[in-house]
Amino acid sequence: MRVLEVRDYQDMSSIASKIIIEKVQSKPDSKLGLATGGTPIGLYQELIRDYRKNGTSYERVCTYNLDEYVGIDPEDPNSYRYFMEKNLFAHINVPESQVHIPDGTVEDLEAECKRYDDELNRREGVDIQILGIGSNGHIGFNEPGTSFSSHTHIVKLAETTRKANARFFERLEDVPTQAITMGIASILKAKQILLLASGIKKAEVMRRLLTSDEVDEQLPASALKKHQNVTIIADEEALSLAK
Ligand code: PGA
Fold first, then answer.
1. Directed axis angle between helix 9-26 and helix 41-54, to 10°?
2. Strands 67-69 and 178-181
3. E-assigned strand segments in 171-238
4. Which domains does the chain have, with CATH numbers?
5. pLDDT above 90: percentage of residues in the chain
6. pLDDT recorded at residue 230
């Protein structure tokens, strides 16, 4: 894993955006693996800015999101589908038919996981996968203890994750208890992975990830050590305990 230390959230977002923009310009039919959460919002803003200024086209790009809550309607402002529309898709020219996000409202969730995996498997892996990291080390919604050989599956969200995400909901009780997430094995199929981390809240997990050789299912992000092309873009605060 390559670690790029940057000053702050803005630098992290801008460096990550340059990597994505270069990829989309050199390979206009790129497959992008996208993430939600507070971390990638700045990156998406940079992509929108570049789109408006330089016209980088997403017309042939396909996107695949990591995860979605179970039981939240796509139109609901708390769904990840809505998040992506609001923060990125509504502002660039990616066709809706090329956007892929698991559907957490279908009756047969197992079938939905299989459908999503089949969709991912039809490709040879995304060109670039964007990841945030949870303070418990999760990537996507793969909580500690998830098998490294997992594909798209249904997860029970850790209480720490529900609490961390409660800031987006009115009440903690409104935060779903389950989600559909790409598995660790699905994530590792990406040709290139960018893991973004910003802020002091991520310092402890970055210390765990970077100061030992530990590859352990209790620290889901440690699976990335088995991948050949991972770049961590993290700011000074996130790396403050990892020296
Ligand atoms: P955050 O979440 O970007 O909101 O910090 C990251 C994650 O939980 O994966």
1. 50
2. antiparallel
3. 178-181, 192-197, 230-235
4. 2-192+213-233 (3.40.50.1360)
5. 94
6. 98
